[in-house]
Amino acid sequence: MDKLKLRSGTNIYNDSDYYNAVHWNYREFTEFPVKLLRECNPVTDLYLKENRIEKLPRDIACVFFVGKLYLDGNNIRAFPVEMCRLPYLTHLDMSGNLLITIPEEICQLTNLQTLILDDNQLRWLPISLQNMTNLKELSVNDNSLYWFPQKIGSNYYSSSVRFWRNRTLHHVPFALWLHVLNDSQLPVAEKLCRLDDLEWSSYAGESLKNTVRIGRSQMELVIPQQFHQIEQCASGSPASLLELCLRRCYIIYYRVLKADAPRHEDENNNEIDKMPNWISRTMQFGPTAFCDVSHCNCPLFGYAVLAVCVRDVDNESGRILATAFFCSKSCCEFWKRVYNTEPLEWTLTR
Length: 350
Ligand SMILES: [Zn+2]
Hints:
By secondary structure, the protein is an alpha/beta fold.
């Protein structure tokens, strides 16, 4: 425990000026240098980029006080659970390694703000990422992801998420997709074109060949597959059971809260606390959108049917001025029949 104390005898993290960076990039280390690190004063920033480390040690707590850890460009195959017990870690870069999975225990890194995992072989991300409320930046470009969590940290709106060139990723959560669209105040079409610049289509790979052709302007917008079932619904999948449960839960939750909150505020909060953490947070943040059919107005969480209204395309600028989201194909069809005297001019092409 001597290392927890410095000259003054105080805990180093009571001393905000304490900073000890160790730069050991390009040293051709084949092992994590535990022995050398034990001889150092407590390290706050550790640079071990571009070495040849294959394995992280179980006693990685030898860098207990590390805040920023750079391990990019090594040959590390596994993310040890012990690494989830570094309480001061705020920044972790493990890009350019050979990681296949990240343990669910990563959510124990409650101070982690930046997590860079580009260029690994990840197929899944831990669902516990949604409990990491301080995570502000997640980068998982160039992996082999099949699946993306419904939420990152508090929500996608308070985090920066990069996930390009995961060719096996067929679906992104509605919340993430909206977040990408809402990233700036630009009109929708411009945003989608901008996504194309960012290799949206190559990220999507062969699985997302469907495009929406925008009438006279002949623009092709690449739309994530889960939103394809607008016109050719035969192959379209319905909302998942989880999605239907979340919608129902939210309606009940909202009614109860609205009816009782003024009288029994504390009791209601207790009820919320009894729900599983991620559900209670989902309920409190609410849905990403609501069905645009006014008599339905169903809350939408991870599943939506998207309509792009071509009639409202501004031909001069090519901007799309209207999009609408629906809880189901039938609501989309209803909206098109009732609220639009002319059929929408969009087509779904293969
Ligand atoms: Zn609906």
